[in-house]
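Hi support team,

I submitted a single chain yesterday and got back a structure, but I'm not sure I'm reading the token output correctly. Could someone confirm the output below corresponds to the sequence I sent? I've pasted both exactly as they appear in my results page.

Thanks,
R.
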Amino acid sequence: MDVYLPIANMSVNGLWIVALGGLTGILSGLFGVGGGFLTTPLLIFVGVPPTVAAASASTQVTGASVTGVIAHNARGGVDYRMGAVMIAGGVIGSGIGSLLFRFFRSIGQIDVVISMLYVVLLGSIGMLMAKESIELLRGGGSKQVARRRHHPLVASLPMRWRFYKSGLYISPLAPLLVGVVVGILTMLMGVGGGFILVPAMLYILGMSANVVVGTSLFNILFVTMATTMMHSLTTKAVDIVLVFLLLVGSVTGAQIGSQIAVKAKPEMLRLILAAIVLVIAFRMFLGLFYRPDEIYTLSPL
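Hi R., thanks for writing in. Yes, this is the structure output for that exact sequence:
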């Protein structure tokens, strides 16, 4: 079933796009990531311009996050106060990311920037997650995780607040700055930011593991809504047909993922996610060194 994508100016298999949406929805419910880190590269692999892939994936991530938040909220797994602070930072970051997106596109380098960001961020985070997961599965890292606290720099920030569900007494400036970084990445890369946000919440903020996934999805939901509006008003790169096909699969997939997450072993899930992240990073790295037969991109009018 071929479907024409007007903004991307190409035809794709609609069933394949729906299946991709379902896969990213499952990842959303399982790991607390929006799934955009997978959606955007795979769309690029099939020929969708990176700019269109990034803008459209951020819209699809919103739909996947809605159902994920509902599922995790039902078991008390969302810290709304922490999430609200990070959302404020995310909106600020989206504005900064919009300016950067337009600048790199104006000089004809946005496609290269998107690909390089994926290689660097996915590669480094994938290795970190894989290392810790292997240690936990071997039984060597369990004591370290039990003693995990927030980063010393976080402890030095002024104006401390209590975040009861996360079990923290820290400055709101820390989650605000984390939100700003995630907002910039969401705008540039079309990701929900979960693959950055989840490790940051665990290793930098020191949040309780039982609220990390739900709070991450709550943040992703609103940040991707903001970035979608930014893209629609500034870059004009959102392909509504592509978004619809992705949403059809992702809404169902997120519910499935949330159910699996309750029963599965967290260390094994984290190792699987790390493996997926590293494979995609390697594929994006290879893509920097070859030229496809046909090139699709967006250029300023």
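A quick pointer for reading it: The CA atoms of residues 103 and 109 lie 9 Å apart. Let us know if anything else looks off.

Best,
Support desk
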